[in-house]
Amino acid sequence: MRRALTERLLSHPGRLSLAYFLVLIIVGTVLLILPATSRNGQFTDFNTAFFTTVSALSTCGIVIVDTAAYWNLFGQAVILLCIQFGGLGVMTFASLITMTISRRIRVTQQLLAADELGASKLSEVRSVINVVLVCTFSVEIIAFSMLFPALLRLNNGQVSQSLWEALFFAVASYNNAGFTPDTAGLYINSWSVGLPILLSAFVGTLGFPVILNVFQCAHKRLSPKRWNLHTKLTVVTTLSIVTTSLLWFLAVEWNNRVLFQDADLSSKLWHALVAAVMPRSAGFDISWMPHVSEQTKLFMSWIMFVGGGSASTAGGIRVTTFAVLILVCRAAFLRRKDDSVFGKRLHTQTVIMSVAITATCSVLIYVASLILVAITDRSLTDIVFECCSAFGLGGYTLGVADPHNPGTLYVLAALMIIGRLGPMTVAYAISKPQPPQAVRYPAESIIVG
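Request: output the structure for the sequence above.
Response:
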C-alpha cells in the first residue's frame, strides 16, 4: 500500500515537489505560531510565522523579525530544520523514501529523480543522492569545526552558546540561508567567523552534480580538462561573476563615506568579498546594504537574479542558464549555426529551456514588481532589488517586506517558493501531462531583431 502510494506520487515529480514543500510550510508555520517558540512566550501572528517558515524552507533568509532576539532556542531549532530540509531538496527525500519502502528505485522514478537532482545519467541517481547527503553533512561538519573555536573566543568562553551558534552558522551558510543566531549581527564581520561561512556558502552554490563530477575526476586522477560540460560552464561562469562583483564593489563603493567612513583596508576588502559571494544566494550581514549606491543595488539585483549552480542550494535562473544565453547571443551575432563551447555543441532542448526559464522569470519579477509598486510607496530600485533577492534566494532586504503590509509578505513569499522549486517545476505541477506530439509541422522562417 505504502509502496504503491509512493510510486504514484513519484509519477509526477512537479506535483510531488510542490506538495512536499506545502506540507513543510504548514508544519513549520504551525510550530512557529506556538508560544513555545518565541522568547516572549506569546503566540506569533500567522503572517510572521508563515513568512519566516517560507524564507527558511526556501533557504532565502529574508527576515522580518530578529532571529536571535525574537525566537528562543526551540524556535531557532525549527528554523534550522526548515533550512536543512529545504537545502537538501525535495527529490532527495522522495528518492530516499522510495528506497526505504521498496528497497530500489524503478527506472521511471530514476528518470524523474535524475531530472530533479541534476544527474546527467540514469546510473548517477544513487551517486548524486549519496553525494547530496555526504557532501552536505561533510561541509557542515568542517564549517562547524572551523567556526566553534572562533565563536568560543568571541563569546568569552561560553561553550553552549558557541556550540549552538557554530551549528546554526554551519547549516545556514552551506544551505545559503541568511539567518543568523547572532543578535548583534557583528560576528560575520570577523575574518575567523566570516571566512568559513563565505567558503561554505560558495561550495553550496556550485550544485551537487558539479561536486559529484569533480569528486569523480579527482578520484580517477583526471585533470579539470576532463570535467563534463556542465561542470566547466558552472565553474567558469561562477568565477567570472564573483570576480566581476568583487571588482565592481571595489570600484564603485571604495569611496562610500557612509559605508566606509572609518574603515581600514581589511574592512573594505572583506565587504568586497561579501558583496562578491553572498548576494548570489547567502545574504548574511545585511547591515551595510542600505548604504550602497543605487547603481550597486541594481547590479546586485542582476547577480541575485542569475543565482547559483543548478541543483544547488542557491536560487535564480542559475549560472548555466545565463551561460547558455551568452553562448546563444554569441552564435547569433557571429552567424553560427551551432552553439558550442569547450569543444562541445549544446543541445537544442538546452537552449530552448534556458530561453524559456529566463523569459518566464523575467516576467515573474516584472509582475511582482508592479504589484509591490501598487501597494507600497518604496522606490522602484528597492522593489526590484527585493524581488530579485526573494526569487534568487539572496536573503538581502531593504525593508520592502513589511509586517504591517501583509501583501508584501505574500508576494515575496510566492517568489521565494518559485525560486526554491524552480519555475519549470511549478509549471509542471499545475499542468496536465501532454501526450507526445504526433505531427511535426513544416518550419518557416520569420524576421526577428
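Residues 125-154 form the longest helix (30 residues).
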